[in-house]
Fold these 3 entries.
Entry 1:
Amino acid sequence: MNITVCIKQVPSTSEVEIDEKTGNLKRDGVDSKINPYDLFAIEEAIRLKERIEASVSVLTMGPPQAEEVLQESFTLGADKGFLITDRKCAGADVLATAKALAEGIKKIGNADLIICGKQTTDGDTAQVGAEIAEFLDIPHANNILEVKQIKESSIVVDFDLPTMVQTVEIQLPCLISLDKDINQPRLPSYKLKKKTQNKKIITFGVDDFEDPDDSKYGMNGSVTQVVRIFPPESNEETETWEGNAEELSERITQKILELKIV
């Protein structure tokens, strides 16, 4: 089985400046890490690799420094790393991002199972995984809680619905997006770090895609526009209330109504 995991490099801090003109995060000079949800995706791919004969490829899109998260994925057990790096992909919304990643998956070839994290901590849209599957015209399921069984041409999974957990069988090739309850990611291996420190990462850009139309990637291919993005305002004001249970509960109720929380 060939497993492809889509990951993203995200800022490792919430103190990130925002470009007021484009609405994009200013990532230059900011410490980065693997998107936390993607660690669950990598871990699940490695666990599947330990259960059956499989190869794990990790794919990301970003500037050249995004190679760092691919190198880290090697220390977790991934076999191959692929980087889409092209200025034509800059400023992409979820649709243009999904299109580029789908093209990257086709470029890698022969993916039986694609695994994504539920969402990213910088975008929080939880849309890219499903959109990749739609571009590839393959079945997909989100909020996967467990991969129960792997068959020759399908997998059986549990996924979380609002009122129940449902078990479904999905034909391969397919895409699944994982929530954080599925596993506990392992720590990087020092032995693998030494062994893979010179491992080659394969890079390519839009011109290498099956569909190299510039209008479908980056800002050109983005159908949504950010009207305004800003960090939340911090409020350090505090109040101390005294009184018996009945008095305090009444004050809390009035405060909740005043702040329009309910």
Entry 2:
Amino acid sequence: MAWTKTIDKNDIIEIINDLEVYKNESQEIELGFKTCSVALKTLYTSNEIDKFCHTNEDNFMMELLAEITKRTIDNKIIKYEELYYLDEPTLLDKIGNSKIDELKKLLNKFENIMMEDIPEMILNNVKIRDLNPLVNGIRLSDLSKMDNN
């Protein structure tokens, strides 16, 4: 909601109230929607969120953070399990207080890089979410086919 500005609190309440539990084609339980308009609003918002989460800057920073995290664990500065319960300031302090210069440089880069200094990233095999929710138990794409007939 904060990123896209496409929905507000009332829209979120409307989406939650429109949710319904269905069984999909495989007889598995799946959430869907009662109305097409709410399903479309949800898809639009999801697509807008994806735009923010797949920017070059976001991809670069996520890769950099993953590298910092991996090296921090490899150098036994933190344990993998600590990622689940330590807060960010504590984790960053542990990394910053390490004696490993390369790790400190990576952390400094993460904290201080300027947008114009972020290199272009080429990501192969990025998963694209192709959502096709149920509306009254029918796939949204199947509903649009029915409308065209």
Entry 3:
Amino acid sequence: MMNNKYQLPKPIETHFYATNTDDSTSFLSVFTENADVFDAGKVYHGKDAIKEWSDREYFGVRLRLEVINAIHNAKEFVVTAKTDGNYDKTGLPDPLYIDFHFTLDGDKITLLRNVLSSNSRAIPLPETIATFFHAQDVYDDDLLASCFADNAILLDEGQEYYGPENVSGHILEANRNAKVRTEISNCVELSDKTIIVTATISGDFVGSPISLYFNFTINNGKIKTLNIEVADV
């Protein structure tokens, strides 16, 4: 079920191949002794904990993963995969897409974070924009702030926020409080500096779900302005 058009580093390739072939030994071999796995709100530290987790959540339910997209940013590899298996599917999207965020040290995985994908349709996104949405998904304040220029401006619900830390802080606080899930449905590049992403967000807020336009302007690889507004769809 691997998609051969994506050239993945060997440990990441092994992660997916071993999963799909029920090879728990090879699966565990690509993690460092002190690796961490974040999955479903829990942290598993070290190989013993990762083995217990993978025996239950991967091999115990015969998890199958079909890679549909992969990107590499400054901090990590992010692989999106369509999942199937004998796990409890109650309340989950169908089909279910997961983003696997890998941090590597040489030929070993030091960190893996599994989160529901905001880009399940594998829509091509400029690298900065892809990083923005992935940072939102994993609540990575530093990574999200790094997407913005020093003089960045966010316009959201009639309020303005200035600077990378204030912008990222507002976005992640709002997403955490409302348990926001994002599903990207379109991306239009009006120019090399102006990009509009359409996405539906859902969560614990009035009016959920709602379709939004994320209007980005990019300067020197950083987000200069972001205007979030209700989409006219």
